[in-house]
């Protein structure tokens, strides 16, 4: 009797069949698309549009600089260099080029040396007004250079430095220093202090340890800071326009402005002058791009 009841209870718990069941579909884990899975046209089309947008103005400038005056061809053929001869000899662009190069190199050297010493002090020493000084450096980046033209003009006039390239070099260096000091300070913080301490134990002074241990490791950062100081001073227009009135002291940006007349514009000469102004910058970035990327990568994250 007990066995029969147990058998009935067992049969009662068995569910009745409901017909054929569909196979269960387990959701596959969502996989992110790898770079190799992206269709190539999604990469090349945006890059092609960007290059087209970037390179067309340069081609247009070369076209006006190399084709003869009065030509409407979209291809610079027959090619002529009369516009370059005109701006280099008749418009004194050789003198402007020399002045711009002097201002750029001097600004590069002075900015790098002063920023190196200031950045080392901020990275290695602790003093009471350190945070306030850093805040002042950051706030100075919000002041446009045009607001300082009149005070700087008065200062240089009292110092009898007007129509001198030294006035432009000082002004450019002063406006490049805040950001340069901050960048150099970040680069130096990435160099472990233990390397300098090991050099001190070996008998090196602080300056010798910095020169032998820290300075070689700062090469990418120094190149990044120096290149931006050079390019900014090479392209800057306001300081040279305000402080230099003599033609033999003017720089390339001011020289380009003299090619724009009140009634007409010599497009061929203006384009040739633009090419002359752009070539040094292109050469600089072509040679230092590897160091530039390495420098900004080193200063982006503190190790």
UniProtKB/TrEMBL annotation:
<feature type="transmembrane region" description="Helical">
    <location>
        <begin position="265"/>
        <end position="288"/>
    </location>
</feature>
<keyword id="KW-0812">Transmembrane</keyword>
<dbReference type="InterPro" id="IPR050901">
    <property type="entry name" value="BP-dep_ABC_trans_perm"/>
</dbReference>
<feature type="transmembrane region" description="Helical">
    <location>
        <begin position="43"/>
        <end position="66"/>
    </location>
</feature>
<feature type="domain" description="ABC transmembrane type-1">
    <location>
        <begin position="97"/>
        <end position="288"/>
    </location>
</feature>
<dbReference type="InterPro" id="IPR035906">
    <property type="entry name" value="MetI-like_sf"/>
</dbReference>
<feature type="region of interest" description="Disordered">
    <location>
        <begin position="1"/>
        <end position="31"/>
    </location>
</feature>
<feature type="transmembrane region" description="Helical">
    <location>
        <begin position="101"/>
        <end position="121"/>
    </location>
</feature>
<protein>
    <submittedName>
        <fullName>Carbohydrate ABC transporter permease</fullName>
    </submittedName>
</protein>
<keyword id="KW-1133">Transmembrane helix</keyword>
<dbReference type="InterPro" id="IPR000515">
    <property type="entry name" value="MetI-like"/>
</dbReference>
<keyword id="KW-0813">Transport</keyword>
<feature type="transmembrane region" description="Helical">
    <location>
        <begin position="133"/>
        <end position="153"/>
    </location>
</feature>
<feature type="transmembrane region" description="Helical">
    <location>
        <begin position="165"/>
        <end position="188"/>
    </location>
</feature>
<keyword id="KW-0472">Membrane</keyword>
<comment type="similarity">
    <text>Belongs to the binding-protein-dependent transport system permease family.</text>
</comment>
<keyword id="KW-1003">Cell membrane</keyword>
<dbReference type="Pfam" id="PF00528">
    <property type="entry name" value="BPD_transp_1"/>
</dbReference>
